[in-house]
Amino acid sequence: MMIQIDSLHILIVLMKNVLVQQLVIYETSASELDIIRDISRTFPSHVFFQQRHGPGQRSLYNVLKAYSVYDRDVGYVQGMGFLAGLLLLYMSEEDAFWLMVALLKGAVHAPMEGLYLVNFLSSDKNFCPMPLLGNNGASYDLSSPGAVVGLPLVQQYLFQFENLVREQLPRLGEHFTQEVISPSMYASQWFITVFSYSFPFHLALRIWDVFLYEGVKIVFQVGLALLKYCHDDLTKLPFEKLIHALRNFPEDAMNPDTLLPMAYSIKVSKRLEELKLEYEKQNGKQAQSGESSGKQK
């Protein structure tokens, strides 16, 4: 019986590996050129990904292409490379692919796929400071007036984060209001890449350890801890210097031995759930209002 179970397990593993290879070799992806273009931008200072067309870049391409074919609704969006790249440092292509599936589809925690769904365009140029590539192969520069405002889960998280800042750091929240600073100007990539885009690698790994165990709550906690640590300096800065500071935190603020204990002490679970319901209620009303306007026309 044990031999049969072991044989079945081996067969399942082999089938999964073959599926990933088939997705890469035999299927076509509308995002293929976007993936190729972005590979060199993913962890560019890490030795595993530095060699052009080297093993790291090839593995990253394989995982991202396989996922873009496996889930064509999401496809590929810039930012997913940091997720895949980090996983590839610790596991095989096949394991990285299936863990991406688990994370995006919600087998581990709340589904992450809403972070990468690019749906439509808007004139809101401040939605997200990080350039993204659409899953239809088009390139969207989010620093331009025609910004992509799909990413429904990012919008929800930014709504929750903005309210948490106002409640837990009221003086800084008021300063942000006066300077017309919204979380979309600095925090989008925190959620899209779980701090792996521009933060020190040793800090990102520590955050990811907690993220894989507890879910997205740690992203809110670390974000609030960063603002709390730099609170007094941030409240003195005008708009341009404030934006720069929010995208370039000082080295001492990103010491994991200081930052993470501060983050753990910030309680957000209950309030996050309340704000999620509030966001869904507001957006439900907006959707109904839009439908009513359409019917009147």
UniProtKB/TrEMBL annotation:
Keywords: GTPase activation, Signal. The keyword Hydrolase does not apply. Residues 1-22 form the signal peptide. SMART domains: TBC. It comes from the Eukaryota. Residues 1-215 form the Rab-GAP TBC domain. SUPFAM superfamilies: Ypt/Rab-GAP domain of gyp1p (SSF47923). Gene3D superfamilies: putative rabgap domain of human tbc1 domain family member 14 like domains (1.10.8.270), Ypt/Rab-GAP domain of gyp1p, domain 3 (1.10.472.80). InterPro entries: Rab-GAP-TBC_dom, Rab-GAP_TBC_sf, Rab_GAP_TBC_domain. It holds the Pfam family RabGAP-TBC. The keyword Signal applies. This is Ecotropic viral integration site 5 protein-like. One of its GO terms (molecular function) is GTPase activator activity.
